[in-house]
Amino acid sequence: MVVVILPAYNEGSSIGNLLRDFSETFHPEKISYRIIIVNDGSTDNTVEVVLSFRETIDLDLINHSINRGLSEALKTGLIRAVETSSDKDVIITMDSDHSHLPGLLFRMERMIREGNDVVIASRYQKGAITRGVRYSRKMLSLGASILFKIFFPIKGVRDYTCGYRAYRASLLKSAFRDYGNEFISEPGFSCMVDILLKLKKYNPIINEVPIILRYDQKKSASKMNVKKTIRQTLILLVKRKLGIGIHVQ
User: What pTM did the predictor assign?
Assistant: First the structure.
């Protein structure tokens, strides 16, 4: 079983196209899958669009009454996934704005079956292509990856911030058992880096695949505040360098 987690905040203009792609992509592959959508306090028609697919896709919709931010939406989705998955399942996280394409998921899932514990869709592998990404965001992602590669090198990881990942379910179960709710503790987009730093203690086998990142297909407004994300990333770097907040329960 493949379990996909989609945090969504005001993605009514994009998530329908993504779910349609899922339906069309998975149908001929005959792979069992379930999609957990965390509606993070959307004020547009996100919920209505999602519910229009409930007859054709195995959907699990979780609603936050208010917007809590990416890290809390991701935490909600991951907790539901580990609680309802078997150790052998593959858990996928990806964006709901149609910039991450479902077709890559099959290669990532296969790599987990081949023995990897984490597979990252990477912008820094040969063959990766990005379309429609702002220069400031490119520089932020590249700068963060360089910093963490220097101070917290993890074998197999070049892209520390991309949210399109596949995890072996048993690995995430171990992490939530040991860290509890603190497994996802950093705000905003920096939580993606922190997940890797916390998983490092399990000595996971991590590999990357080149991503085709299609921001030109994204119809909704960007949720990333670049200055805020830079500040959060630098704070995380200092905290982890000082050994703050990464202890297990």
Answer: 0.89
Q: Is residue 117 part of a domain?
A: yes
What's the CA gap between 47 and 19, in Å, rounded?
13
Contact between 131 and 215 (Cβ < 8 Å): yes
Is residue 249 situated within a structural domain? Answer: no
Residue 220: count of CB within 10 angstroms of its CB = 19
Distance CA 75, CA 121 (A): 20
Q: How many domains does the chain have?
A: 1
Task: Identify any residues that bridge with 33 across adjacent strands, giving them in sequence order.
Answer: 2
Q: What is the pLDDT along the chain (249 residues), one digit of tens a residue?
A: 999 999 999 999 999 999 999 999 887 677 889 999 999 999 999 999 999 999 999 999 999 999 999 999 999 999 999 999 999 999 999 999 999 999 999 999 999 999 999 999 999 999 999 998 777 777 877 877 888 888 889 999 999 989 999 999 999 999 999 999 899 988 877 888 899 999 999 999 999 999 999 988 877 666 556 566 677 777 777 777 667 665 444
